[in-house]
Amino acid sequence: MTNATSVQPAIELIVNVDDLGLHPAVRRAVEECGAAGTVTSASALANGPDQDALRPSYPGISLGAHLNIVRGAPLSPAREVRSLVGENGLFLGSFAALAARALRGGIVRSEVRLEWSRQVAHLRARGLAISHLDSEQHAHHLPGLFGVACDVAREHGIAWVRRSDERFGGLRLGIPALRRAVLRVLAARAQTGPAVGTVDAVWGIADQGARCTADACAQALRGRGFTRHGGSARGAPRVVEIVCHPGRALPQDPAIPPSFGRMRVRDLWEPEYRGFSGDAWRAAAAANKWRLTSFDRLRPIPSDDR
Hints:
Blueprint: E1 11-20, H1 24-36, E2 41-44, E3 62-67, H2 95-103, H3 109-125, E4 130-135, H4 145-155, E5 160-161, H5 175-188, E6 201-203, H6 214-221, E7 238-244, H7 265-277, H8 280-288, E8 291-293
Parallel strand pairs: 1-2, 1-7, 1-8, 2-3, 3-4, 4-5, 6-7
């Protein structure tokens, strides 16, 4: 007879596409991979060039807000968010420029909260049910801003905020691995407070593009034990969010506007779309006993488990 206490509970996997609303290529990937059952979640840019084409809902997909103070134009008048914009009234265009200003003490948190709250309100006014928050370039992990994101979540009754804590995966050197290491340090200090939860971990920060494969994910997760972040309840589901950027571009598609700065996301679209539009992720889920789920289907974490 099998000892029930020795059986590892299945990992719940949320496959989340960032940048919905950035470009038609991303919207196509969400629609097609969502219909195929390999994508379960997506985060929308309220100020994205393609956000007017978004539908209020996509079957089987939870929708979140991809909070943005890095690229494009703010929803707020520039005079109300002066610490976040340049002389042209646009966001600074790169994470490096935003981080440098933040480290100099040049970011006003109340302005960040105002802009992020307006972005969430804008998406909800368009009919999107927002179940979670994350951010462009993980900017909500800059010092002091994770708490702002959690405040915005509480203000709007949103239960989940991404903690960009990738604790496993390839050990190769390079910019993605450095980004993962920095985010791990910042995420370790991030506290959600009441009424807001985070999943156990994320994967896909360092393994992007051609490296974002079901096999690589399975290898990273194999033998790893998870509990809800800070939790002690036995038998709690283990939840991992896959951070991905698939896209299916067509020749007639528009370019990403210059106001969004230099973006390498186009290099990630095609290889990730090929992976998620095929059978590999479904096969890996079956073989590894992953349960694909979405943020709006997760059980809320009791306050004493955070």
